Amino acid sequence: MNNLRQQFIAFSVSAGVLRFGEFTTKAGRLSPYFFNAGLFHDGATLAQLAQFYAQTLIDSGIEFDMLFGPAYKGITLASATAVALAGKGHNTSFAYNRKEAKDHGEGGTIVGAKLAGKVVIIDDVISAGTSVRESVDMIRAAGAEPCAVLIALDRMERSGKDGELSPSSAVQQVSEEFNIPVVSIGNLEDLFTYLNAAGADPAMAQYKDAVSAYRTRYGV
Question: Fewest CB within 10 angstroms: 18, 140, 143, 171, which?
């Protein structure tokens, strides 16, 4: 596989981060797959994940000055991506937030570089968009400009309850609300392509119909 997006899906499967079966999502849906970025928890897989984030950001052509990682998963993702970008000749500063303000030492809720210029928000996925909204508020309050959101996987599914599904996904809603691009390393279409690929693990093919049905029911 020489397609970066397909490489990412294959990597996520091999790392056990992208799993297939029956999983109840935060929205209460029964999903045939589940993506848990918290399982990128050793040095080798985190280093490889950061390479995917960094290359995807570079390939996007988005102009940016620094990275921001919302607590908690975004902290590791932003710092690791900054390291990967430096290795590719793009030395970039980063910052992240605390959940609770610190009243001693440097104080405040922001740790790392001062928020300034064009800021890329880095996270694993966008579910309800709450984390992004909080990040945008913090970045703007500091006088900086949120210029993009970079995530690992876009599930490409509509939000809401069955019978009352929204016309767009959480990712689309965030992009429209803040007028900024949301860039993903991979998405549901890439996952489906992986399952359909001739070179895919035959054990994966059994999930193709379930993923297709889920996409038909909830996809955008």
Answer: 143
Compute the distance between CA of residue 26 and CA of residue 30 in angstroms, rounded to an integer: 10
> Over the range 33-56, which residues count as b (16 or more CB within 10 Å of their CB) and which as e?
bebbbeebeeeebbebbbbbbbbb
Q: Which two tokens stand for residue 213?
A: 């049905």
- 148-206 confidence digits (pLDDT tens): 999 999 999 998 777 788 899 989 999 999 999 999 999 999 999 999 885 556 777 78
Catalytic residue among 104, 118, 161, 208: 104
Determine whether 208 is an active site residue. no
Task: For 107-125, write each residue's pLDDT tens digit.
Answer: 468 999 999 999 999 999 9
Catalytic residue among 41, 88, 90, 102: 102
